[in-house]
Design a protein that fits this description.
It is built from 15 helices and 4 strands. The protein has helices at about 10-30, 40-60, 65-95, 100-105, 115-130, 160-170, 175-190, 195, 200-225, 230-255, 275-285, 295-300, 305-310, 320-330, 345-355, and strands spanning about 5, 270-275, 285-290, 340. Helices cover about 60% and strands about 0% of the residues. It has one domain. By secondary structure, it is mainly α.
Length: about 375
């Protein structure tokens, strides 16, 4: 298969990559701060797990009507998204703690979303982080039916109105993973990625089936057996919970990469990207609402995507402090630092970008027919 190589002879780009690493490392060294999580991270973890688990437990303890139960399902969905953004995400990157067992245990909160940890690490840590916004490589912008997130993807008439309907389909993100995890693992196994990371595909399939059966029994079977709600009401609540989580997660992720000012470069025929990897991340990623205290807490630093992509091994607790350092360094070397000052600015920019991508392109550049690629360079996005 074709692989991507980042090749750059521009000394300015190379100097930026070295300088931004040094400046951020100096901040932690001079202030004698660990790059991993702290006590505040622990409090955040407990809070997110509570928002998810407590409403579920109350359904068995406190008699409530269907409307209250529906609200609790929405609340659980918000908690599910919070776990994904604030707990699982850092742990899967190995940035939650210096202790590997802690990262492994908390990355397992992915199972509370009904999904698979290994699949997530490949799709996100490996493909998305190493090859951000590159069509055919970054699965986060892959062509997905009614939504077109890449300017190089095939155009369909339904894409004309995606700025309206995209958010509805975003809600299917987590619930679709209940089934798509199996086909995704098959693709990774076919590409040799399971062997590359010494994963036994049969054992992983068995683990996946077992985890999903338990998940469905707990969140569907138990409510059917031990609450007064009918089976269809339980299924409706399950769907509402997942739709809420999926809509939040997808919207937040796309507001960092599919907005105005972020690039979607294509590799040359030899699979070459003419850019230093750090500069590529700067050009394909955006920050937003850095001064919004609630977002900084609830979405786990995903509004600091530039910092996260450059330093995925650093816990999101620290992004607010290192963001000005990264921004200053980028401007010193003459590179644009894509920042949307508020959530509203970023949201509107995403909608405008969806509109742009919903217009039939006059010229379509050929894209390498690649879905899964093998890792060829030692990037900061390696799997922990």
């Amino acid at each position: 298969m074709k692989t991507i190589k980042f090749v750059c002879s521009d000394k300015r780009q190379q100097q930026f990559a070295a300088a931004v690493r040094k400046n951020v490392n100096d901040y932690f060294r001079e202030n004698k701060i660990s790059i991993k999580g702290n006590f505040a991270m622990g409090i955040q973890t407990v809070a997110m797990l509570s928002v998810y688990i407590i409403p579920f437990a109350l359904l068995f303890i406190v008699p409530v009507n269907a409307w209250v139960a529906m609200f609790m399902a929405v609340l659980m969905g918000a908690g599910m998204a919070g776990i994904g953004m604030c707990v699982m995400h850092d742990a899967a990157h190995g940035s939650y703690s210096h202790k590997e067992w802690v990262n492994k245990m908390l990355s397992g909160t992915m199972y509370l979303l009904g999904s698979n940890v290994f699949n997530w690490k490949i799709q996100h840590n490996f493909l998305h982080h190493a090859y951000t916004n590159i069509e055919g490589y970054d699965q986060d912008i892959a062509a997905n039916g009614p939504i077109r997130l890449s300017e190089h993807a095939p155009f369909r008439k339904i894409h004309r109105y995606q700025y309206i309907h995209a958010f509805f389909f975003y809600g299917f993100m987590t619930i679709s993973k209940l089934v798509n995890d199996f086909t995704q693992l098959a693709e990774y196994n076919k590409a040799g990625i399971t062997r590359q990371y010494h994963i036994n595909p049969v054992s992983e399939y068995i683990r996946m089936v077992f985890a999903k059966i338990i998940y469905l029994f707990v969140f569907i079977g138990l409510p059917v057996l031990f609450t007064p709600f009918s089976w269809w009401q339980v299924l409706l609540g399950f769907f509402i919970m997942h739709w809420t989580a999926g809509c939040i997660l997808s919207t937040i992720f796309q507001m960092a990469h599919v907005v105005e000012g972020t690039e979607q470069p294509l590799p040359e025929n030899e699979g070459i990207i003419q850019s230093e990897w750090a500069v590529h991340e700067l050009r394909t990623t955006s920050d937003f609402a850095r001064n919004n205290d609630f977002l900084n807490w609830y979405i786990g630093g995903l509004n600091f995507q530039i910092e996260h992509h450059l330093f995925p091994n650093i816990c999101h607790i620290h992004y607010r402090k290192i963001a000005p350092i990264v921004e200053k360094t980028a401007k010193e070397f003459g590179f644009n630092y894509n920042l949307k000052p508020t959530f509203r600015n970023a949201f509107r920019s995403h909608i405008r970008r969806l509109k742009e991508l919903g217009v039939k392109p006059k010229i379509v550049r050929p894209v390498l027919n690649v879905r899964i690629i093998e890792k060829e360079r030692n990037s900061p996005a390696n799997i922990q």
